[in-house]
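User: Can you help me understand a structure? I only have the sequence.
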Amino acid sequence: MTTFVDRVVLHATAGDGGHGVASIRREKFKPLGGPDGGNGGNGGDVVLVVDPQSTTLLDYHRSPHRRAENGRPGAGDERDGANGASLILPVPEGTVVTTRDGGVLADLVGPGASVTVARGGRGGLGNKALSSTRRKAPGFALLGEPGESLDVVLELKSLADVALIGFPSAGKSSLVSVISAARPKIADYPFTTLVPNLGVVTAGDVRFTVADVPGLIPGASEGRGLGLEFLRHVERCSVLVHVIDCATLEPGRDPLTDLDVIEAELAAYVPGDLLGGRPLSERVRMVVLNKADVPEARELAEMVTPDLRERGYDVFIVSAVAHLGLKEWTYALARAVEAARVEVASEIVPQRIVIRPKSVDDKGFTVVREMTGDGEVFRVVGERPSRWVRQTDFSNEEAVGYLADRLQRAGVEEALLAAGAVAGSAVLIGPADNAVVFDWDPTMVGGAELLGGRGTDGRLADHSRRTNIERREEFDKRKAAVSRTRAELDAERKSGHWIDPGQDAG
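Assistant: Let's start by predicting it. Here is the structure, written out as C-alpha cells:
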C-alpha cells in the first residue's frame, strides 16, 4: 500500500459568492418602507499552508478534488449573508506549487508558509446597496460571482543538507540508521527503500539532515527505476555522497564503474529553475566505500582509493555494520555542510515580494472586431464588463436595464460605435468559451449630447438670443400697439357702437 506520494495534481475550486436579495420593508403603517435586501457573502479561498506534521502528499493523491465553502445569500431586513469558510490544506515543508504549464506559484519553505491558489467569488449586492436618489427602490439584486478554479501541481522536494546516492542495496539506509535516530526499513534485496528517509545528525556543534535517495540505476534521469521519481529530492541538498558497495558480486560492477554511472545520471538530470537550476554535478561531492567489514571489500576499497582521490573526491572507507570510519566521515560532512551554508548565505539576496493582485475594479476594456463562422461580432474584453455580466440576473428586465446603464456610463457604447458596430450587431462580453451574446440596441441619448465639457454651456454661444436693446424695442412696440387699441375702442364707444347695459336704448 502506498504511504508516500511526492507529486500530485490538485484540482482546487474556491467557493462561489452568495447572491444579493431584493426585498422591501413592510411594517405596520409603513406599507412601502423602502428596499432592505442584504448583500451575499464572499466565497471561501483555497489556501495551502506548511504543516510540520505533514510528510507526504498522499491525502491529495487519494482525494485530488477540493472545494471551499460557498458564501451565503443575503436576506431581508438588511441582513448580509455569511462569508464562506476558507479551505486550509496542510502540505509538507519543501512543497513547490506550479501550474500545469510549469509556472511557479510558490515554494513553501518554513512552518506557516502559505499561498492562496484559488480565490473565492465576491458576493452580490442586495437592492438596499443598489438604491440611490435615481433608483429609490430597485426590484433586483446582483448575483454572486463564481469562485476561481485552478489545477495546480504539488511537488515535494525534501529539505536535507546531505543526500546519500548510489545503486540499490549499497547500504544507504543502513548508514542513515547508524549515524542518526532514523529507523528506515533495511533488507538485502534491491529497491528496499521506496521513499526518501530523513535523519538528523549531530557532529560536534553542527546539526544537519541526511536523506537516503532510493536506488538509482542507469537511465534513472530518463525515468528508469525509481531514480527519476526521487532525483528531485536531491535538488535542495548542498552535499552529495556517493555510497558505493565494495562487496557486490554482480558482474560488471566495481567502485569506479558505479561512480561513473551515477555521475552520468546526475549530469543528465536538470534541476528546476526555482532552485537556481544549479546542475547536480556542481554540488560538493564525496565518496563513501561501504561494507568494509568484509575483508575482500576492504581490500578493494583500499585499492581504488588513490584513483578516486586523483579525481578530486574525498574518500572514506566505512562499515555500517561494524561502525567503522563513521566518526571521521560525519565530521567531514559537518565541515562540508558548514562551508556550503556560508557560501549560500553569502549568495542570498533579500527577495523583494511583489504583490500583483488581480484588480476587480479595472476600468480598462477593449473592443475587438472579429469574423466568425456566423458573421461579424464585436467582443468586449475587460474584467469590469465581464464581472458586471456575471452579476446580472437576465431573467429580470430591470437588472438587464441596470447592466445597460452601467455599460453605457463606462463608455462601452461609444467604443462599439468607434469600432464600427451598428444596431443589431452581435456583441460578446465575457470569457471566450462562455461569453454572453447581445444583439446591440444603442441607447437613445436624451439631451446630454447638447451639453459641452465641464464648465461650459453651449447656450452662452447661442447668438440668436435677443439683446437688451432688442427687448426694449419689442416692449415699446407692444406698448404702442396697446395704446392704439385702447384709442380705437374709445372712439368706437363715443360713436355709439358700444352701449352701456345700465342705460336705456333711447
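Now, to help you interpret it: Residues 189-193, 219-228, 347-356, 444-460 have pLDDT under 50 and may be disordered. The two ends are 137 Å apart (CA to CA). Let me know which part you'd like to focus on.
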